[in-house]
Amino acid sequence: MKKNLLTLFAATAMLVSCGTKEEPKNELEAAEMESEELISGEADSPIAFNDGLVGHVDMSEVHLAELYDLDDQDVPGEEMETAAKKIIDDLDERIAGLEKVTPVGKGGQTFLDAAIDQLKSTRALAKVYFDYSDDLAIPDMEWSDEMAEEWDMAIDALYEQYDNTFDALESAQSTYASYQDMDIIESDVTIEDMYEQSKED
Q1: Which of 50, 72, 111, 161 could form a disulfide linkage to 172, CB 3.0–4.6 angstroms apart?
Q2: Which 8-state DSSP code applies to residue 101?
Q3: Phi-psi bin for 184: left (phi > 0), alpha (psi -120 to 50), beta?
Q4: Rounded Cα distance, 111 and 96, in Å
Q5: Taking 90 as the threshold, does the pLDDT of residue 99 lie above it?
């Protein structure tokens, strides 16, 4: 039981890499590499800083795509719980890492803070999928009105928070790019594409 989030997926394409140092095999690997470079302190230029933050956000969106896919499949509660727990742990690690990052360039702190807030709002959504894993195993058409109402009460405010933090993130990135005289180029690769790449490994 979920909302249609295709518009949120599409919005992610606006947060794209301004450049990359290596030739990863696909966009998913590029996002992971760039996010790791940021945490390790290797992202010492505005472009690398941007790409690292975008990498973390993209990876968090891939995580959500996985949860939505599992929800669509009505997988057993234990499978959903395991996946959500793994995702929550990964997001916790990313947030902790980003909180230690030194921002690069004017507007970098605001951009960094916005990315952290976005990961936190994504984590909150993942936690609801963890908490409702057993209910989500039941096909939507078999949900009672009470179950649907309880789910909506649990998730609606978090979707709104997610939207708000995403808007703030896009604004912070745009401002950061203007300060650095960089262009943000929209990618034609979607989060769904990256999620499919994650299933190839």
Answers
A1: 111
A2: P
A3: beta
A4: 16
A5: yes
